[in-house]
Amino acid sequence: MHSMNRKEYKKKIIVTGGFGFIGSNFLNKFVLKYPEYLFINVDCMTYAANKKNVTVSRKPNYAFEKTDIRDLKSLEKVFKKYKPTDTIHFAAESHVDISIENPAIFVETNIIGTHNLLMLAKKYSLNRHYQVSTDEVYGSLKKNDKPFTTSSPLAPNSPYSASKAAADMLVRVYFKTFGMNTVISRCSNNYGPNQDKTKLIPRFISLLLSNKKVPLYAKGENIRDWIYVEDHIDAIDKIFHKGKPGGIYNIGGNCELSNMEITKKLIAITNKDESYIEYVSDRPGHDFRYAIDNSEIYKKLGWKPRYSFKEGLVKTFENMTKGK
Ligand code: NAD
């Protein structure tokens, strides 16, 4: 396909954080699926970014701008250069443990960075701002509580989740007060190709493959809802195109597992045994359980997850070990 003149693209979408885990999976699928859209990856390349994550960088409908969303002036230059029509905002500091060590950078990137994008989306009359958020904004559930719905109160417990909740509130304000066309989705724990090695599943797989013990918080009792990253990005695609203005959507994998259950599955897939588990003391403010009620997004947009944990884990493992 010959490259389209920038003016001819049906949409020109700023995708922030495109070299991270979920953003890169999104670009790798949708740059190919939508040749009529231009995707502008805006990423400042923190420790969590990896250029190799993006496999579509030679496509004519892909562009990259090394820009920090905390820097309003540089960000505005990108808006002036490309005249974008939409934003899909993935960029964030995303590691809870790091947020406990250094909360300030979470306030800067996740709150001020989001607000910079909102200001520019308003100034340049963009069609839609899509906020990629997390179920962690709802805080923690007890064992027998009902899963989170979009009416659950926001009750974040870590600097990470508090900064994401604050960003969601700003997005709400730009919808309510300024009439901007926004959508927010709040997803549960993702896993899959390109996830940074500091996160539980890739970290444990790497440790086990190099015959090292895995550190398990709080006897592994904490429960998370896990979703394969491709299911998350397919939901984003649907919400981006069909979500109603001001809409908030929860996205879950229908897959609640305790950290002990996950660890046992990782031990099995790497052919190790339980002597590889090292129990460590819990992290402060550690949320006990997250679970997502998927019925709203299913009813409104007809989306549900396609991958079982078993299928997703095999794909993740194969991706991590290919070529080794
Ligand atoms: P990630 O940490 O893997 O990637 C973040 C990306 O953002 C990196 O490429 C980084 O360089 C970039 N970035 C960070 N600060 C920036 C800044 N100031 N300016 C420009 N770019 C910057 O994150 P992820 O796991 O892919 O998460 C993406 C989004 O999805 C985040 O908003 C996160 O809150 C949300 N989310 C993640 C999960 C999950 O399980 N990983 C679940 C729900 C929601």
Question: What does this entry look like structurally?
Answer:
The chain is of the alpha/beta class. It has a 7-stranded parallel β-sheet, sandwiched between helices. Strands 7-9-11 form a 3-stranded mixed β-sheet. It has helices spanning 21-33, 72-82, 96-101, 103-123, 159-176, 200-209, 229-242, 259-269, 295-301, 309-321, and strands at residues 11-16, 37-43, 62-66, 86-89, 128-134, 182-187, 189-191, 214-217, 223-228, 247-251, 256-258, 277-280. The two termini are 34 Å apart. It is globular, with a radius of gyration of 19 Å. The model has no long low-confidence stretch (mean pLDDT 95). Helix 1 (21-33) links the parallel strand 1 and strand 2. The structure holds nicotinamide-adenine-dinucleotide (NAD). The site of nicotinamide-adenine-dinucleotide has 30 residues, from helix 1, helix 4, strand 5 and strand 7.
| Helical/strand content category | alpha/beta
Measured as a percent range, the helix fraction is 25-40%
Ions and ligands? nicotinamide-adenine-dinucleotide
* Average pLDDT figure: 95
Strand order of the largest sheet: 3-2-1-4-5-6-10
Q: What is the number of E strands?
A: 12
